[in-house]
Amino acid sequence: MSLFKKSGAHQWRGVIKEYEKRLPVSSKTPIVTLNEGGTPLIYACVLSEMLGNDVWLKFEGANPTGSFKDRGMTMAISKAAEDGAKAVICASTGNTSASAAAYATKAGMVPVVLVPQGKIAMGKLAQAIAHGAKLLQVKGNFDDCLTLAKQLSEQYPVSLVNSVNPYRIEGQKTASFEVIDALGFAPDIHVMPVGNAGNITAYWKGYKEYYADRISKSLPAMWGFQAKGAAPIVRGKIVKNPETLATAIRIGNPASWKQAEQARDESKGLIDMVSDAEILSAYRLVAAKEGVFVEPSSAAGLAGLIKYKAAKKLPKGKKIVITVTGNGLKDIQWILNGADKPITVPVDVKKAAKVIGLS
Ligand code: F0G
To answer: For the whole model, what pTM was predicted?
Structure first.
């Protein structure tokens, strides 16, 4: 405690406290927080050069449970606590469940999480278990999990904390505030992956609110990228059996479909798709060249920009922010697969130097 009492010491207080006036909370709301938000906005030198634009990465993997979901979860769980909820439920491709489990535990509630069997990354599964969630693996995909979670919340005393819960969107919009607060202006283009489509909806809401209050002078074009095998918005129809290695965005019928289209159209942006190979290559590149380790789904936005650059469809000289949504440590197999085996050496300086190439 005494550490924080030193004069001038300050810790980021979490998105509700930092943006209290812009969120639907009152003095009666018990704030449940893990001090989420305040994530780094990193200037990406290599990507800027490569893409011919000024590019920043909004690194959401630096949140307490390792993804952007914590921004919405602090709001959803705080409001559930205000309503006296004892248990919360969500469907998830992994990150929402990890976040819900952590925040519900912090609030003394029981977290119930429904995930598609065999289709979530091990790190995320471990998080739900670590935080003591009631974990149900559903024989179906994310869309089936969401249907089941909705039914359970309608028929039993358990609150739904998926992004159909409007408080989730409210919390997640704070990421746009942070971008503008850090840059001093809104970017020309904001790029991100799209799965259930809550995040693009939330960012657009945040940008519009700052613009309406004249904190920023312009609005960005919202660019979203889905995975080719799970691209219902791009294809204009529900994908019954979505398939992609980017399991976080393996979704065939997004809950915020209409709102995402609205964000795209109002902002004069676009929603397009990228292949798994393009996602993997962007995922490796951002780690290897920028020092930012993200999970595969999180690289969909960058993959989209690289694809547009190659097709000569990317403007030049713009200010572009890419949200990289989740931490690479959650889903490590895609780096380890195909990597060279680590070299084993004895405790011998000459031999070690030789292997390193120093002698
Ligand atoms: N990136 C990551 C790492 C995600 O976990 C998600 C969604 C998205 C992008 C897409 O965001 O759904 O708001 O369009 N994950 C949800 C989950 C579905 O259950 O964790 P979205």
So the answer is: 0.96
Q: Is the CB of 93 under 6 A from ligand 1?
A: yes
What distance in angstroms lies between residue 214's CA and the mean position of ligand 1's atoms?
Answer: 30
Give the atom of ligand 1 at the shortest distance from the alpha carbon of 198.
13
Given a contact cutoff of 8 angstroms between Cβ atoms, the answer to whether 161 and 74 are in contact is: no
- Cβ atoms 84, 30 nearer than 8 A: no
Instruction: Establish whether residue 328 lines the binding site of ligand 1, counting it when its CB lies within 6 angstroms of any ligand atom.
Output: no
Measure the CA dihedral 116/152/174/254, to 10°.
Answer: 50
- Indicate the DSSP class of residue 341: P
Could you read off the pLDDT of 64-104 as tens digits, one per residue? Answer: 999 999 999 999 999 999 999 999 999 999 999 999 999 99
Both tokens of 290, joined, read: 């920028």
- Of 188, 270, 179, the C-alpha closest to 226 is 270
Beta carbons of 226 and 238 less than 8 angstroms apart? no
> Is the beta carbon of 197 within 6 A of some atom in ligand 1?
yes
**pLDDT confidence of residue 326:** 98
